[in-house]
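Why do we care about 3D structure at all? Because function follows from shape, and shape follows, mostly, from sequence. That is the central idea of this module. The next example makes it concrete: a single protein chain, its amino acid sequence, and then its structure expressed as tokens.
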Amino acid sequence: MSDAEQGEAEEAGVDGEAPSKKKKIIVIAAAVVVLLLVAGGAAYFLGLFGGGGSNSGAPQTGAAGEAEFVPQKEVYFYDLPEVTVNLATQGQATYLKVRISLEVADRGVADQIEPFLPRVMDAFQVYLRELRPVDLEGSAGLFRLKEELLRRINVAVYPARVDGVLFKEILIQ
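And the structure:
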């Protein structure tokens, strides 16, 4: 083989490898860009840039480096009388005993609710007696119970508003 033929063969070999090297470089560059985007997004959501991340309710540091605490909203808790009902079952009687506390904005709202307490207790009794033990299984069952009781109490005490229903005790026997 002459020197000219060898030079042409080497150029052909280099040209043959060039597209695969270019592809590798493009893939590596794309991977680096994706990695940087993921890292930047994670840093943003962790609040490293001072943006609205998942810790927006957490204490923030001020200019002097001291923690600034956002005061929590004032609430008032109103305890309802204990409720004991028998659940809807086919065979053996099953009882539900529940103690509930209502979360309201202030004492004034609790005072507005008090005259409607018989209506609230009636709504609770009627609803709870229709439940089956299966309806109260797991956290999803208790969440549905909470939401339904909250909806019913807000209908019963309108125009006053209850912000939350809190279970103090739940016993199924």
